[in-house]
From TrEMBL:
Residue ranges crossing the lipid bilayer per the database entry: none
Coiled coil: none
Name of the protein in question: D-isomer specific 2-hydroxyacid dehydrogenase catalytic domain-containing protein
Recorded family membership: Belongs to the D-isomer specific 2-hydroxyacid dehydrogenase family.
Keywords: NAD, Oxidoreductase, Signal
PANTHER family per record: D-ISOMER SPECIFIC 2-HYDROXYACID DEHYDROGENASE FAMILY PROTEIN (AFU_ORTHOLOGUE AFUA_6G10090)
GO molecular function terms noted in the UniProt entry: NAD binding; oxidoreductase activity, acting on the CH-OH group of donors, NAD or NADP as acceptor
D-isomer specific 2-hydroxyacid dehydrogenase catalytic domain boundaries: 54-179
Signal peptide range in chain numbering: 1-21
Amino acid sequence: PTSVLLVAILWSLLLLFRAEGFVTDLNHGRAFFQATASEVKMSLESFNDKPPRVLIVDAIDQSAASCLTEAGCVVHFASKITDTDLASQLISESQGGPFSAVVVRSANTVTKSLLEMAAEEGGKGALQVVGRAGVGLDNIDTTAAAALGVTVVNAPNGNSGAVAEHTMALLLSLARRVGEGKASLAEGRWAKAELTGTGLEGKSLGVVGVGAVGKRVIKLARAFGMLPLALEMPLAFYRE
């Protein structure tokens, strides 16, 4: 997906900018840059130092890994790795380290102790970037990362399109009573008259929260001829 590929470029850029010392305040450990892989590659070619090493510890789209490689990074993969093994591999020269960046999804937890080990013991190639190939950052200690100067980046819109489409799929399923129809067929009944259902066109749709997903749901709902009614609540409301 484009969003996943883009975040791979962002990780490459963060490595580049931090190596040059251009970035000092990265918004509490999170920053987002936009560039092409070729631009990053040309910039990296100006360095005489070793290329950044990136450890990917979960399955991601191959295009993202290719983007990192094209940008001049050395990419290593370690699937189904435990958190303990992850900490040791990040600083182990025999296993490709020390690594400048690590890419995780949800299988691993990047704790304070792991960050301290990888950022302090890695020497010149110490951990600088933690990339989350997804939206949530609950498995990464962002406070500890910020304190250690480790940048954390994610793909905030990585799955918003898929979630919005799934929302519409559920709406259609409910409106057309697809689940009930499937169940009746499994019972050997053809309940056509009982399960007429209804259409979406002309119906009002309430959308609470107009973020990346909410906006896409509204766009899709309009395509079905629905009337979206959006409500955006203060952030404190969601925290409660």
